[in-house]
Amino acid sequence: MSASCGPLDTLIKKFTNRDQGRRKAAELRLLTAIESTQRGLTASPSSKQDILDAVSELEDIGRCTVTTGSDLSATWRLLYTTEKETLFILKNAGWLGKEAGEVFQVIDVENGSLNNVITFQPNGFFIVDSSLDVVGEQRTEFKFRGAKVKLGNRPFSLPPFGQGWFDTVYLGRSLRVAKDIRGDTLVVERDGPPKSFL
C-alpha cells in the first residue's frame, strides 16, 4: 500500500461510491484487452500495453483499500498472467499427452492456505500447495509446502520449492488483480468459495 495513504483515505475509499463508474469502466477495459490473449499466451505488444494501462487504473482505484480480508478467500479462475512458468505449462501441456484446462488460485485467508492449480483434460492436475500469511493491507506472503501432479491414475508428490509475496492491488466483486515479488501480473475472476481439487 502506498505510504501516502492515511486512515482518512482508507475510510473515504471504504464508504464512498464515487469510484463505481470509473471502476466498472476500468474493469471492462481490462477484460476487453485480455479477451483474445489466451490467458497471456498470445498477448501482442499493443495488447500488453492496453492491459498495463487498465491494470494501472484499477491499481489507482484500489489504492488505500484493504484487499487481504475475507473477500480475498475464494477460488479464482485465471484470465491473464505474465508468469512464465504458468504460461510454459499451458503452452506445452501437449508434451505430457494432455490438454491444459482451467487454471485456478484457491485462497483461504482464515485457514492460511494458497493453492495454485493447473488442470489437464480430462482428469489431470498440477497443484502447488502453500501456506499464506497476511502481512499488510494489500500484501500476503506465501511459502510452498509441496506440489502434486496427476497425469494418469494416481497423483505423485514433489518437494516444496520457494516462497514470496503478492499484492492484491485491486479487489472487486468478481475481479482481482495482483502483482508479485517478481513483477508479474495476475488477473483472475471469482469462481466460487475456496474448494479442493484433490
UniProtKB/TrEMBL annotation:
Pfam families: PAP_fibrillin
The Plastid lipid-associated protein/fibrillin conserved domain, residue ranges: 26-150
Assigned GO CC terms: plastid
Coiled-coil segments on the chain, per record: none
Compartments (UniProt record): Plastid
Keywords in alphabetical order: Plastid
Plastid keyword on record: yes
InterPro entries xref list: PAP (IPR039633), PAP/fibrillin_dom (IPR006843)
Family annotation (PANTHER family): PLASTID-LIPID-ASSOCIATED PROTEIN 4, CHLOROPLASTIC-RELATED
Protein name: PAP fibrillin
Provenance organism: Coccomyxa subellipsoidea (strain C-169)
Lineage of origin: Eukaryota, Viridiplantae, Chlorophyta, core chlorophytes, Trebouxiophyceae
